[in-house]
Structure formats: structure tokens, C-alpha cells
Design a protein that fits this description.
Structural class: alpha+beta
CATH architecture: 2-Layer Sandwich
Number of domains: 1
Low-confidence stretches: none
Shape: globular
Number of strands: 4
CATH topology: Beta Polymerase, domain 2
Largest sheet: 4 strands, mixed
Order of helices and strands: HEHEHEHEHH
CATH class: Alpha Beta
Strand order of the largest sheet: 3-2-1-4
Length: about 140
């Protein structure tokens, strides 16, 4: 994780997913989420992530899936910060984790209601396909 941890734009990084929880397969990738410095724009964060992702890949090692923590859907970001702290500013990580948990819990009821509506729709219409567009994360990440 050297290139990621030594990058001045990295505020902190965390490992998560199957390789961190011990439920990986030989083909599993290594999931790493990075929180970049606040002053970077969405485009700058995207550019940094692309370059760092290339720098992190090792011949013979697992593919490293580097994601921008602030661009993830809140459910995935919540899973990521429950993973393993890798490097960076631990105090910033703990603060981000607390803020994310507050936001996650505040939206819990709405997420549950959407899930039940989806289940009801499937029960009524079957699994013929959805007329609902897929969910994509907002470029500016979750609301804080």
C-alpha cells in the first residue's frame, strides 16, 4: 500500500470486503477505500484514484479495487469503514466513521421502506425486469 499511504492527497485508507473478513476465494480482489483530502474536486479524486490504482497492482497478487470512499453508496461506505484501517490520519478516520454512522442511521427507515416497496413490486410484477433506473452514487458522495 506504499504508493497510497505516501500520497499527500490520501487522508486515510481502509481495507474491507472478503479478503479482510476471511471469506475470500482465490479469485477475490482486495477492496481498499481511500478518503482523499477535502480540497480535491470530484474530478481530481477520480484522477488520483486511477493513477494510484495502477500503482498498487502487483504481478501475481490479487487485483486491488481502489474506491473513493466519498463516492460510494452509503451502504457500501458503511461496510468499508467497518473494515481495517490501513494508513493515514486515524483521528480523521474515526471522525468520518462517526459522521457516516449518524447519516447511515438517519436514513435507515427510508432504505427499509424502499426495500419493502421493491419486494412488493417484484411480488406483484414478477422478475421480468425493472422499469426503475439503476442506482448510481451521486458524484459528490453522501450528504453530511
Amino acid at each position: 500500500m506504499g504508493p497510497l499511504c505516501s500520497d499527500p492527497d490520501t487522508e486515510f485508507a481502509v481495507r474491507f470486503g472478503s479478503r479482510t473478513t476471511g471469506r475470500s476465494r482465490p479469485s477475490s480482489d482486495l477492496d481498499v477505500a481511500v478518503k482523499f483530502a477535502d480540497e480535491l474536486s470530484f474530478e481530481d479524486r477520480f484522477r488520483r484514484r486511477c493513477f494510484l490504482s495502477g500503482d498498487l497492482q502487483q504481478p501475481g497478487g490479487p487485483h486491488i479495487d481502489l474506491v473513493d470512499l466519498e463516492s460510494l453508496p452509503i451502504e457500501v461506505a458503511h461496510d468499508a469503514v467497518s473494515g481495517e484501517f490501513v494508513c493515514g490520519d486515524r483521528a480523521a478516520f474515526e471522525e468520518f466513521k462517526r459522521d457516516l454512522e449518524t447519516t447511515y442511521q438517519a436514513g435507515r427507515h427510508d432504505r427499509r421502506r424502499r426495500r419493502w416497496r421493491r419486494i412488493d413490486r417484484i411480488a406483484e410484477e414478477g422478475l421480468r425486469g425493472s422499469t426503475t433506473p439503476p442506482y448510481f452514487a451521486h458524484p459528490e458522495g453522501f450528504a453530511r
